[in-house]
């Protein structure tokens, strides 16, 4: 399942949509349809997408929103890199990764990135897009942490329901959850963004554990 969260110029957050991919799985074509759907719903310009590293998504963003930056979620990138590293290397790798996303200026981050590549041979080219944007709002851009609450709720609700009678039932539950969060978020915007002239962003959270099976269960949550 994929969830898209938009952040408007005044800092107001809004769930833009959710998608349950079937047997065809993820592909550039499917992501293009998702992004085209966002355009049909009124999303015309996006300054930056913050996403997990999903197959075909970067290419789809470049095609549908060519002026947008793409930021790989630092949190997921760090976790992925640490999980793939040897135990004895993890502390050193974590310190090298911190130098990138804690950098004050782009040049400092680029130097840390070059050092990381040379030492660890890590693919990390998409970690620096957030540095093109004003410093007060970078904290909102380099991770998809804003969706953590949504993900937790999506995990919790199906545990109560246990079995859905069909894909439509799962979609209704997600719609109701989205509506509740939109009402809560509508009361106040994010502080740094309210004071900034910066435009909108979209965060995309994808959780591979959330899959709609053929027997119409939402399981492994």
Main β sheet profile: 5 strands, mixed
Gross morphology is globular
Q: How many separate structural domains?
A: 2
Q: What is the chain-wise order of helices and strands?
A: EEHEHEHHHHHHHEEE
Question: What CATH architecture of the largest domain do you see?
Answer: 2-Layer Sandwich
Average pLDDT, all residues: 72
User: Which fold name fills CATH's third level, the topology of the largest domain?
Assistant: Nucleotidyltransferase, domain 5
Poorly predicted tracts of residues: 206-221
Determine Rg (CA atoms, Å): 18 Å
Secondary structure tally, helices: 9
**Strand content range:** 5-15%
- Using the coordinates above, name the CATH class of the largest domain: Alpha Beta
| Largest sheet strand order | 2-1-5-3-4
User: What structural class do the secondary elements suggest?
Assistant: alpha/beta
Q: Give me the count of strands.
A: 7
Keyphrases for this structure?
two-stranded antiparallel sheet, Nucleotidyltransferase, domain 5, alpha/beta, 14% strand
Write a structural description:
45% of the residues lie in helices and 14% in strands. It is of the alpha/beta class. It folds into two domains: 148 residues, Nucleotidyltransferase, domain 5, CATH 3.30.420; 55 residues. The strands form two sheets. The chain has a five-stranded mixed beta sheet. Strands 6-7 form a two-stranded antiparallel sheet. Strand 1 and strand 2 form a beta hairpin. The longest helix is centred in the last third of the chain and has 19 residues. The radius of gyration is 18 Å and the shape is globular. The C terminus is likely disordered.
């Amino acid at each position: 399942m994929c969830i898209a969260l938009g952040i408007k110029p005044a800092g107001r957050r809004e769930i833009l949509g959710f998608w349950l991919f079937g047997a065809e799985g993820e592909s550039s074509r499917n992501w293009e349809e998702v992004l085209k759907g966002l355009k049909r719903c009124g999303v015309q310009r996006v300054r930056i997408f913050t996403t997990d590293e999903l197959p075909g998504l970067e290419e789809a963003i470049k095609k549908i929103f060519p002026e947008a930056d793409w930021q790989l979620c630092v949190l997921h990138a760090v976790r992925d890199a640490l999980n793939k590293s040897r135990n004895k290397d993890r502390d050193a790798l974590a310190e090298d990764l911190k130098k990138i996303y804690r950098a004050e200026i782009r040049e400092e981050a680029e130097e840390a990135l070059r050092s990381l590549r040379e030492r660890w041979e890590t693919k990390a080219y998409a970690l620096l897009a957030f540095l093109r944007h004003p410093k007060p709002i970078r904290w909102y851009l380099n991770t998809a942490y804003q969706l953590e609450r949504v993900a937790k709720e999506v995990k919790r609700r199906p545990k109560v329901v246990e079995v859905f009678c069909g894909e439509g039932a799962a979609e209704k539950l997600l719609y109701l959850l989205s509506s509740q969060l939109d009402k809560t978020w509508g009361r106040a915007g994010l502080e740094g963004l309210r004071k900034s002239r910066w435009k909108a962003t979209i965060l995309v959270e994808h959780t591979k554990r959330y899959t709609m099976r053929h027997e119409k269960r939402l399981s492994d949550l």
